[in-house]
């Protein structure tokens, strides 16, 4: 694999991850682009004790453009996109409309309650294009291409973790217009947050309490072992990876995919574990699309250890979940979920696992 | 106001709240209904240390029926609905497809990880019809009708709090098909949870820490006072109520409406405060609909003190929020929000408050 670092016309970084070592990346971005926006603000909510990002410039972001104007396709003589090359394998670049950025502007002076701290939203947001094929999907990638994507995730996790502002690196994919995806081209994103995220903070606090109660045992390893024994919520098991529906799943279809070996993050995966990820994840995605015979909207969220704290307690896993509860019906986060944080799941986890297992591939 | 308790054909309770004391409620429910479903299960997620409800029977719930078959309209000679009467003011009844219920069935024996506790989803779920007019909206109610709704909320909060299983009573309204509402008739819901909700737990923990650091001061009262001083995020202020956009709002349009006097819940409001709620809330709702000149999807969530613990720390308020960030565009909870709990708000709270204030009513 060959890694080539370049820059776009407005100074944003773009990195090619090419499967052929002979690939040469020459074309420069010829567009006349305005400078990237300043970083967002982050504000500390004293009621839930969490940071919230305010990124007004994102209102202008590209929204469901026609295929011929897709900014994630390779450039053509007639249309310059975010990627100057005429083809690519996997490419990563700084988001043009970032929620977090190292480009810190002049802070605004606002009358705020004393409990509400305000800071620049440092960090970085990147886009990961999985393929140059506009009409593909992650589920249709080859295992070799998934391997290249894993290398890109590992590379970005290592590099973004070195930025002083960054406390956590989050690789994810949103798929499907039903959940708000604004670009159809198969792509993921990476958020390098300037704080540890609320969910990760709660997960690590649970893991700490579990370790204290159980002679240092790891919460996630114990849950993984218990699910392997219980069997009823298993989806796919292989030598290196295990996919199951958690016993207290929040979403109609929610699958957690763990490496069988306890590691904190993607860079810690061995070459054999990285090789084995593509086949198991592709099977899980195809089972998910097979449940109702229609492509499922989903969020795929990599839970990695934060950069500095809690690295021994964390256990890398991919949380894949879909809001589709039936053909033509979605699970919405309404009053109970969005107002009170209480999830009502309409599908029993054991039934969801069985439906996924019974899909004929 | 006259309160009449009746029962539907399957044994569920239905309560009329009539504005005329002379109203007589005779008609009985003549339908041939199956018995109500057993309670859901609640399962304890050891990773986030929260209860999740699993309510598979809700998959069968009524989904966007045609107007002529609306189950929340008054009954007609040709079509029997959930409400046997030919007209009503405000009516409350047990949800036919409840997430929580006192009808406890036989528990299922499942192989679960040792950390995942399972219990019957005790408690109760009710539907609150605000008006018999199918085409109305909360924003089009009269102040008198809103007063009747407040009485119904207060009545239900008191009564449901006496049920042994119930730890918290949550009155809310989901409005708009964009956020998953399955019945168009103007209605709200009440969830009487068998546990303290995660959001309330976190809010009370914050309030406790604030009180410890500030000589017993109340977090919410301090935030309310600070917002009144700051002014820039104010929406409406009256003698008894204050509506503002919080400084760290998570949603494009999010308004918190507090009584100026510190009370734990709706039953604690005085008659004058109850009278004053309708005019201020109706103004807020009309400003919200006025921002883009289209009816806004929203969730209106009453934050009340739990039944038993933390009652001194809680401060009643209504959290009203909309996912609409522009005409034709919604804010979705995607990877950052749903995966990591980090909200990215595309509209600055100060701008949202200004837009709401500038609406010509």
Order of helices and strands of chain A: EEEEEEEHEEHHEEEHEEEEHEH
How many domains of chain A, as an integer?
A: 2
Q: Which superfamily, in CATH terms, is the homologous superfamily of the largest domain in chain A? A: HIT-like
Total helical segments of chain A: 6
Apparent shape of chain A: globular
CATH hierarchy, class of the largest domain in chain A: Alpha Beta
Biggest protein-protein interface? A-B, 88 and 89 residues
Low-confidence stretches of chain A: none
Number of strands of chain A: 17
CATH architecture classification of the largest domain in chain A: 2-Layer Sandwich
Average pLDDT metric of chain A? 94
Beginning-to-end CA distance, first to last residue of chain A:
31 Å
Strand content of chain A: 15-25%
Question: Can you characterise this structure?
Answer:
The structure is a homodimer of 361-residue chains. Helix content of chain A is 23%, strand content 24%. Chain A contains six helices and 17 strands. In chain A, strand 1 and strand 2 (13-18) form a beta hairpin. An eleven-stranded antiparallel β-sheet of chain A has the order 1-2-5-7-9-8-13-14-12-11-10, sandwiched between helices. A three-stranded antiparallel β-sheet of chain A has the order 4-3-6, with no helix packed on it. The first copy, chain A, is globular and about 60 Å long. The first copy, chain A, starts with a strand and ends with a helix. In chain A, helix 1 (143-161) packs across helix 4 (271-290). The first copy, chain A, is α+β, with helices and mostly antiparallel strands. Chain A folds into two domains: 2-195, HIT-like (HIT family, subunit A, 2-Layer Sandwich), CATH 3.30.428.10; 199-358, 2-Layer Sandwich (HIT family, subunit A). The mean pLDDT of chain A is 94. Chain A has helices at residues 143-161, 198-213, 219-230, 271-290, 335-340, 349-358; strands at residues 2-7, 13-18, 41-45, 50-54, 90-94, 118-120, 124-129, 168-175, 187-193, 234-237, 241-244, 253-259, 298-303, 317-322, 324-326, 329-330, 344-345. Chains A and B meet through strand 3, strand 4, strand 8, strand 9 and helix 2 of A and strand 3, strand 4, strand 8, strand 9 and helix 2 of B. Strand 4 of chain A pairs parallel with strand 17 of chain B, so a sheet runs across the interface.
